């Protein structure tokens, strides 16, 4: 099976690392979340970046 070949796995990991390095700021923003959380009213579900027209 191709998915268990060492060369295939090594290249797959390299591609993932390259992608992560190229998108480090986007990943950091996702992990750290917004710099100042928006207050929500009691009982309302939490909102996440990208919801309610925020980009």
Keywords:
55 residues; mainly alpha
What general outline do the C-alpha atoms trace?
A: elongated
Question: What are the secondary-structure elements, in order, as H or E?
Answer: HH
Terminus-to-terminus distance: 41 Å
CA-based gyration radius? 18 Å
Q: Given the helix and strand composition, which structural class is it?
A: mainly alpha
What does it look like?
The chain is mainly alpha-helical. It is 47% helix and 0% strand. It has two helices and no strands. The chain has helices spanning 6-22, 24-32. The N and C termini lie far apart (41 Å).
Topology:
Elements: H1 6-22, H2 24-32
Short description:
With 55 residues, the chain is an all-alpha fold. The chain has helices spanning 6-22, 24-32.
């Amino acid at each position: 099976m191709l998915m268990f070949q060492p060369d295939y796995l090594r290249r797959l990991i390299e591609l993932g690392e390259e992608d992560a390095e190229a998108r480090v700021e986007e990943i950091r923003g996702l992990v750290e979340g917004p710099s100042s959380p928006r207050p929500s009213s009691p009982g309302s579900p939490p909102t996440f970046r990208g919801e309610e027209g925020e980009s």
